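Handout, section 3.2

Students often ask what a structure token actually looks like in practice. Rather than define it abstractly, here is a full record for Cupin domain-containing protein. The first block is the sequence as you would receive it.
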Amino acid sequence: MTMEFATPYRSRSHLPPEPGRPYFVEKGMGDRAHLFGDLITIYAGGEQTEGTFNFFTCEGAKGDTIPAHSHAETYEVFYVTAGAVRLFVEDTAGEQYEKLLGAGDFGFVPKNCPHAYRIERHHSQIVGVAAGPGGTFERFFENLGVPTEELGLPRTPAVPEPGKFATVPREYDVRFLPEHRWRTPSFRAQDQR
């Protein structure tokens, strides 16, 4: 059994609200949020790590590509533990990469690199870590999406109100790139359909 804490952002959390305290979290019992069709579970964030990194999982069903975005001050890791996830990344010179990651595969996205991903198989899971001089962005998920106590995927997609896209991303070093175009093989094949 894990302890519960009251925090500035949640009435119940399994994560201590201050750094410097060892803790343990049972599977799936971190702070959870639904965003689009995914379940995001935070296990460690800026509050616990003095803003140095976060650790979270993203579970989802096969679906649409998450919109292209970048982080000016944050490096991001994608480690797939189940299923398959297609990662799209553009480096700072404009070269684009696409890689299908399966269980045990790893992807790294440097700061200032546009990226997106698409879950390719139902019941896929990504372990994410984000770190950088700008801090962490784990609270982005529950502020753009919907905090939840549920352990599973949302019954209906948690689509943010349009106004949230104008304010929430800036607070968490997330810049959406609506005009970004991918030129990688799977996007070229999709455009030819």
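Discussion prompt for tutorial groups: The first strand starts at residue 31 and ends at 35. How would you have guessed this from the sequence alone?
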